[in-house]
Amino acid sequence: MRKTMTSLSVGLLLTALVLTGCSSGGATTKVGSIDAGVKAAAQAQVDKNSVLPAAPELKALSKKAPAGKFAIVITCPLDVCTRVANEFIDGTTALGWTSRSIVAEFTPESFVSSFEAAIALKPDFIYYIAVQSYDTIASQAEAAKAAGIPIIGNSLKPGLAIGGDSPIVGQADGPINFKTIAELQADVVIADAKDLNHVTYMYDPSSPAYVYQYESFSKKIEAAGGKVSPFEINQADAGATLLGQIVSYLQRKPDTEYFAIALDDIAIGLPDAITAAGLPLPKIIGIAPNKSSIADIKAGKMFASVQWDTLGGNLRAADVLARISVGDKFDADPLEAVMVATKKNADKVPLVTFPGVRDSYLKAWMVK
To answer: How many CA atoms lie within 13 A of 218 on its CB side?
Structure first.
């Protein structure tokens, strides 16, 4: 009888603890609830970044960059990478240089072979988008250094050695940008949500930038009292295969309320695929909106997407090389402009370089 009473007492105690939130300071709500101050701060960030930012003020080069340089950009097969490469090429053209792009597929083998092909062309500079980790091309980077070819990167892993003895001498669209845009994704969720119990982040773990986005997003959600479910994918599956994988995930987790994605280009057509499967549509929050995702936001099928001036960031890459060519200093990890796209302002969000940015660079390069 005593044993039965003890068990009953423990059960009642546990029930009481759950009902009171296990807090000596008074009752609390369920895990995932959001403090009003945290929610207000998140909304303030969303509001602040829902308008077009001013163009950057750039320090002029100490002298015009020497003409006749040759640069190679190693990019990826996504549309955003094509636009990024074209913007870089336009920037170097304005400097009086020639450039060409090499497309690396989303495999280590393709990344390595693209680097080897670039080195064989004997360029003055190599600029690459990190579709794989630096370790994948470390030996090729050292070979480029031995050949006297400076390298700058895009989407590099935080903490990667840059400058000094490293083959990587600079970067554009560095970690500060990916931290900022992922935290803004989290702000969008926190500002809107009643609780943070059903939040997912989809990313490809082979991309250093995506990993940092996931970590930055998760830290902010967790600091607000929530938890993030990671959904790891291979961005090489972008298209019908990946859409099918996402639908399968949501079939297993139909209570998902917020579905954040590392890049809009890898999930084109996602809202329609979810709806066609007869599933409830979660609030989708993306990064780097394209024509398709902007249309989805306008139609209310996608909740938001964080735009950052990734194209202007590639004018930044040309700027870094220009400064290297004349011996000028440059920012180690510059922050580009950002803007949150929602149904309220989707018409105003640029899908090209932000207004005034290109003119700022041309002025700094003394070619305007």
So the answer is: 16
Give the model's pLDDT for residue 33.
78
Return the bridge partners of 283, or none: 258
pLDDT score, position 330: 93
Note the residue count of the chain. 368
d(CA 90, CA 148): 24
Above 80 in pLDDT, residue 336?
Answer: yes
What does DSSP assign to residue 75? E
Average pLDDT (213-221) is 98
From the list 132, 141, 160, 29, the residue with the least C-alpha distance to 75 is 132
pLDDT higher than threshold 50 for residue 62: yes
- From residue 118, how far is each of 93, 105, 126, 141, 172 by CA, in Å? 18, 15, 7, 11, 19
Which pLDDT tens digit goes with each residue over 292-317? Answer: 999 999 999 999 999 989 888 899 99
CA-closest candidate to residue 135, choices 103, 163, 168, 176: 168
Residue pair 77/123 in contact by the 8 Å Cβ criterion: no
Could you give all domains of the chain from N- to C-terminal order, each with its CATH number? 36-52+177-308 (3.40.50.2300), 70-174+309-339+353-364 (3.40.50.2300)
Q: How many CB atoms lie within 10 A of CB 211?
A: 19
Residue 71: strand pairing partners: 99, 125
What residues contact residue 34 under an 8 Å CB cut-off, 6+ apart? 190, 193, 194, 195, 196, 224, 225, 226
Count Cβ atoms within 10 A of the Cβ of residue 176 and give its class: 0-12 exposed, 13-18 middle, 19 or more buried.
middle
- The single-letter DSSP state of residue 76 is -
Over residues 86-113, the mean pLDDT reads 97
In 3D space, the residue among 255, 256, 285 whose CA is nearest the CA of residue 191 turns out to be 285
Q: How confident is the model over 172-188, as a mean pLDDT?
A: 96
- Distance, in Å, from the CA atom of 229 to the CA atom of 237, rounded to the nearest integer, reads 20
Rounded to an integer, what distance in angstroms lies between the CA atom of residue 29 and that of residue 47? 27
